[in-house]
Amino acid sequence: MVKRITHSTPMSISRALRLCIGEQVALELQASRRRLILTMLGFKEGAGVIVTAPKSLMKGQNTEGSVATLRMVSGNYLCAFKTRVDKVLTYPYPHFHLSYPDSAEFQTLRHHERIPVNLTVSVDHQREEYAARYSLPKLLYCRDLGMKGASIEASDRIAPIGESLFLTFRFRVQSMDQIVLLPATLKNIEELEPGVVLHGVEFDALEEDTELLLAAFYYQQYLIELGYLGHD
Question: Rg of the Cα trace of the chain?
Fold first, then answer.
């Protein structure tokens, strides 16, 4: 569901979009259709938005006055609004001054939706005595991930349905590597073909810091999947 927020609504645009300093955003220039991955530096409600500018655009190109669309993930929303590059500045660092939007659209990102990933995951049992029984831990392959669970691929069944597991991922968020330990329950097992067994796991209750890291990685990958962000 897409909603439009305007100045006439009780909620301000700045609050609706949750323009967080340091967030990665995608600026698409309308004329050239060029998509730039930038960083939000700040904003003044009703006045303007400041984002970093790529050095490649600073010389030999007239970007000022360009109409553009800015997209970003804020909380569990994908936010988008039309804007204009009012000013291109090189001092004290390259940055754009963008016009403040009169309206914005935001779309709820569904927590249950899975996105394809290509991740190595270490799978262990939550009880040491059972880990030895099932020859865990093992390094396996995660083929999709959501806020509520994941699909793990192995050459054989790693444990019976209902077993409690630990999944250890290395997430790369904002150019930083984060090691994340996720408790999970094995919910289903499907043999796709000989030697390829898919395990569906559901995450148990997560600590707040862990859930925030998972959300940051998930929504980053979500934007990559939509084509709004590029791979590192």
Answer: 21
